[in-house]
Amino acid sequence: MSTDTEARPADAAPDRPGAINAVPVRHPGRWVAIAVIVVLVAMLVHLLVTNKAFDWNFVFEAMNQQPVINGFLKGTLLVTVLSMVVGVGGGVVLAVMRLSDNPILSGVSWVFTWFFRSIPRYILLFTMGTLGILFPQGIAFGIPFDWKIIDWLGMSGDWRFFTLDANQVFTGLVAGVIGLGLSEAAYMAEIARAGIMSVDPGQAEAAEALGMSRGKVMRRVVLPQAMRVIVPPTGNETIAMLKDTSLLLAVPVIGELFYQLQSIGSTYYKTFPIAVAATLYYLAATSVLMVGQYFLERHFGRGFGNKAPRAARPAGAGGA
């Protein structure tokens, strides 16, 4: 009796399964969610267009006032940039101090971070605006305790180079930048410390073995690699700083966006349209910052992406 193998011709193709009629998985929940979202968006658009409480003519008129524009440029954007410069620079220094083998430097960094992270920024700015009472004779720069030394030596005069009026230092934009910058430095210290610790210490050891100083190792080897970890939270901190400039009311800072808008709202007894105008300003500014953060993250994250590598082309494949 012959088998199936003997009956089948030698050049016949082996049996293959038929085409699989795959049925896609149904997701009715997705369509329900989309329908709900569409309805909610339509309701929101209807509310924005038809509700007279928004008073869009007044909103755009208030946004185009010159004091408001100046408040946005100086009190919001300028203070954000200066505060972040102080915060990032101070944070990197504090992070290096925290990682130092010297217990005094490490302890000072910890105390600074603990103190300024513990105080709400509104209270910190309010306190900053009242610090002038501590220095009724001004802030002097010179030899420390010069009056005591001069008294012991039986001399007169002082050894001070110059003196600043404390009531001018701790008021206005200067006080706002100092307060926000010191607060931001405490947060940036932890961000920078996490970034530095993410770099393999063996690279720093190898650079030092090549004769590089510790400062150069930090600038040339460690920090460039740590930026991949530092940039994303720093971008978030910058956006948060932009929004926290509205807290400059605590100093107070007259030349600030929200202060100027509130003044207009109080004059015309229109509170809600003023809130809408401020919201539009902050939405526009934070959108630009988010775009910049995206490109910075992509720049410093080169080589660390999650994209799958391209498949190798077979040998002898055509194409230029």
What is the topology?
Layout: H1 4-7, H2 28-50, H3 56-63, H4 66-98, H5 103-118, H6 121-128, E1 139-142, H7 146-152, E2 160-164, H8 166-169, H9 172-197, H10 201-209, H11 214-244, H12 257-268, H13 272-300
Antiparallel strand pairs: 1-2
Helix pairs in contact: 3-13, 4-5, 4-9, 4-11, 4-12, 5-9, 6-9, 9-11, 10-11, 11-13, 12-13
Explain what the structure shows.
This protein has 320 residues and is mostly helical. The protein contains 13 helices and two strands. It has helices at 4-7, 28-50, 56-63, 66-98, 103-118, 121-128, 146-152, 166-169, 172-197, 201-209, 214-244, 257-268, 272-300; strands at residues 139-142, 160-164. It has a two-stranded antiparallel sheet with strand order 1-2. The two termini are 59 Å apart. The model has no long low-confidence stretch (mean pLDDT 84).
Determine Rg (CA atoms, Å): 32 Å
Number of strands: 2
The first-to-last residue Cα distance is: 59 Å
* Mean pLDDT figure: 84
User: What does the overall shape look like?
Assistant: flat
Portion of residues within helices? 55-70%
Tell me the structural class: mainly alpha
Number of helices: 13
Strand line-up across the major sheet: 1-2
Tell me the series of helices and strands, N- to C-terminal. Answer: HHHHHHEHEHHHHHH
Q: How is the main sheet built?
A: 2 strands, antiparallel
Q: Beta-strand level of the residues, as a percent range?
A: under 5%
Low-confidence runs = none
